[in-house]
Amino acid sequence: MATIIDGKVISAQLLEQVAADVIEFKAKHGITPGLAVVLVGDDPASQVYVRNKVQRAEQVGIRSIKHRLDANVSQETLNDLVAELNADPEIHGILVQLPLPKHLDEDEIVDAIAPSKDVDGFHSLNVAALATGKPGLVPCTPQGSMTMLRQTLDDLTGLHAVVIGRSNIVGKPMAALLLQANCTVTMVHSRTRDIASVCRQADILVAAVGSQKLVNADWVKPGATVIDVGINVEMLDGVRKLCGDVDFESVSKVAGAITPVPGGVGPMTIANLLANTLQAAQAQMSA
Ligand SMILES: Nc1nc2c(c(=O)[nH]1)N[C@@H](CN(C=O)c1ccc(C(=O)N[C@@H](CCC(=O)O)C(=O)O)cc1)CN2
Ligand SMILES: [Mg+2]
């Protein structure tokens, strides 16, 4: 049976560290780090994530301000709000909760956020910084996944990491971080031929594709470390349950270590968002 990599425990450690660093920041600069969270529309999952972000921010001493906009808000109004937040010296971090309603252009709004306040690490300049190994704000979910890998494995150097999924917010930044950690990185996706045999070669397997229980035991090398980034909803006997991209029941019998869903990568995302907010505030104070 695989070791369970507990995201609740690891994220609680990170939050504790952020809270201590926030106290130090406040003492040094006499100001409180500020995070603006923008929620457009009524997507129930997004509402839960935003509520959790605001609650956790308070817990670590970061001031958060939530901006709730109607589902049919115009691109112009959203751009104007972001411009206002960019100019606000009390706001050090800005995030726009995704996904946005279809009529809005996500790329445009993400690139409207000042790169120094882009605590999601989605802005083109932060993406370029990560790709070229320069300092910048790194996306929260891949960053959290790396923390879990580092706590599980002594050294990542030379390990073969396979990332399933090529999204801009998880797959691509995850691959860049694994490469920085000296892994040999392969990305697989819906057009990959014989995806199972490629995955079976992985020492580290990261599933970030949004396809319920896609990865089964046949895809996993015995002893591999498996990071499940998927958050999918399944109905079991009429009850709504979360599950990942990995079939936990079968894979946990083969893998060396595995993250569960829920309680794995998810909690790391929010902890890293707050770590990024503090990092952004520190950088702005020394600019
Ligand atoms: N602007 C952003 N939008 C989105 C991001 C993001 O990082 N920035 N990521 C996801 C949603 N997300 C954060 O926003 C997120 C998803 C899941 C969790 C989490 O803690 N999940 C729990 C289960 C929670 C539940 O019961 O529903 C877990 O896995 O244990 C946190 C954050 C898309 N949008
Ligand atoms: Mg759109």
UniProtKB/TrEMBL annotation:
Protein keywords: Amino-acid biosynthesis, Histidine biosynthesis, Hydrolase, Methionine biosynthesis, Multifunctional enzyme, NADP, One-carbon metabolism, Oxidoreductase, Purine biosynthesis
Pathway: One-carbon metabolism; tetrahydrofolate interconversion
Domain Tetrahydrofolate dehydrogenase/cyclohydrolase NAD(P)-binding: 139-284
Pfam families, per the entry: THF_DHG_CYH, THF_DHG_CYH_C
InterPro entries xref list: Aminoacid_DH-like_N_sf (IPR046346), NAD(P)-bd_dom_sf (IPR036291), THF_DH/CycHdrlase (IPR000672), THF_DH/CycHdrlase_cat_dom (IPR020630), THF_DH/CycHdrlase_CS (IPR020867), THF_DH/CycHdrlase_NAD-bd_dom (IPR020631)
Entry similarity comment: Belongs to the tetrahydrofolate dehydrogenase/cyclohydrolase family.
Protein name, as recorded: Bifunctional protein FolD
Lineage: Bacteria, Pseudomonadati, Pseudomonadota, Gammaproteobacteria, Oceanospirillales
